[in-house]
Design a protein that fits this description.
Blueprint: H1 17-33, E1 44-49, H2 53-67, E2 72-75, H3 79-82, E3 95-99, E4 112-117, E5 136-139, E6 147-151, H4 158-171, H5 177-181, H6 185-195, E7 202-206, H7 214-221, E8 226-231, H8 234-247, E9 249-253, E10 266-272, H9 281-290, E11 292-302, H10 306-312, H11 325-335, E12 337-345, E13 348-355
Parallel strand pairs: 1-3, 1-4, 2-3, 4-5, 7-8, 7-10, 8-9, 10-11
Antiparallel strand pairs: 5-6, 11-13, 12-13
Helix pairs in contact: 1-2, 1-4, 6-7, 9-11
Length: about 350
């Protein structure tokens, strides 16, 4: 897969077989999104970011498309000036892939704009722009392990990419998760204590990760209650096993969108940091409602408030985000919940809903 050299980034030949497979999975997801839907004539792709890794992704995407026999032209950032008059004509039947902030201001109907999320830039050369409105977001903090973090549903439905990309993102972080976020456990305990879970009830911790919520849930429901810990990533469940044994929790490998739990089986659902990771939050909330008995509770939690979390990722809050209060109130009602509590303070996000 020929490509330009990028400072400080290992070339294709230096990647392991597992890393190459990870790259190919992400590139093939993007290639599927570039199959022109009806009514879309544009064949133009913008890859943007704050450093040279945007160019790396553009190179590898162009290389992969050519390997698959798809006509593709790769134009670097400098072409925005040098080839201003000639490049649009190349879009006729050919994918044109460009990178760099110079293209950002061009009045172009991009078929796909891709934002490459990388470590914070040392120099503020991006003028505060963080890819708002991009059709796809690729996490490339580790240049050997790209992960597709978001893509617009009309370009690629969640069933195509959600499972592989969620597992890839969290598998790479499972072993160090508690080291990095272990200080959050008191916040988990407070959130669960305030939720008022039923003593002796059944609680599903959906997206349980390393099981940080298990001790607090056990304290809340007592020795005769039941804890179900469900997660999509085998590596996370492996890290959760010690806490599961200590807290008598059952672990299940499960997709939050299709849970292996009977209808109205649980008294409460605890979900930390889950909803924002789902490609369709409304259907995700409906699945959580399906497994919860009438009058049962849903506890949505994150140990950082929405504004603090957005700032950590270098983006601005939008009023249409899934956890914005008005949006969550409407979407939860459509899914069968009534929102009864909402706290989006700097130090945490904590919302409680009751199953209708």
């Amino acid at each position: 897969m020929p490509e330009q050299l990028h400072d400080g980034v290992m070339g294709w030949d230096g990647l392991s077989a597992e890393q190459r497979a990870r790259w190919i999975t992400v590139l093939d997801h993007l290639g599927s999104a570039l199959d022109s839907p009806p009514g879309v004539a544009s064949r133009l792709v913008l890859v943007d970011g704050t450093d040279e890794r945007a160019g790396l992704l553009a190179d590898r995407l162009a290389g992969r498309l050519r390997e698959l026999g798809r006509p593709c032209v790769r134009l670097p950032g400098s072409s925005c000036v040098s080839d201003r008059d000639g490049w649009p004509a190349r879009a006729n039947g050919t994918l044109v892939i460009v990178d760099g902030p110079h293209w950002r201001a061009e009045p172009v109907p991009w078929q796909l704009s891709i934002w490459v999320r990388t470590p914070p830039a040392r120099k503020n050369g991006h003028h505060g722009y963080r890819g708002d409105g991009a059709g796809a977001v690729i996490d490339l903090h580790d240049p050997g392990w790209p992960v597709l973090r978001h893509i617009e549903p009309w370009l690629l439905p969640g069933d195509w990419w959600y499972r592989s990309e969620s597992q890839a993102f969290f598998a790479a972080r499972a072993a160090t998760w508690d080291t990095k976020f272990g200080a959050d456990m008191p916040a988990y305990a407070a959130a669960i204590r305030e939720a008022g879970l039923v003593t002796g009830g059944v609680v599903a911790d959906v997206g349980c990760g390393t099981g940080r919520a298990f001790p607090a849930i056990r304290d809340a429901i007592g020795p005769y209650g039941k804890i179900l810990g469900l997660d999509l990533t085998p590596q996370m469940l492996a890290e959760a096993r010690p806490r599961a044994r200590e807290c008598a929790a059952d672990l299940l490998l499960a997709d939050a969108r299709r849970l292996p739990v009977a209808r109205a089986r649980v008294d409460a659902v605890f979900a930390a940091g889950l909803v924002n990771h789902l490609p369709d939050p409304v259907s995700g909330l409906a699945e959580l409602a399906r497994i919860t008995r009438p009058g049962g509770k849903l506890v949505l939690f994150h140990p950082s408030g929405r504004a603090a979390l957005a700032a950590r990722h270098g983006r601005e809050l939008r009023p249409d985000e899934p956890l914005a209060e008005d949006v969550l109130r409407e979407s939860s009602a459509r899914a069968g919940w009534a929102l009864t509590g909402y706290d989006d303070s700097p130090h945490r996000f904590h919302a409680v809903a009751v199953r209708q």
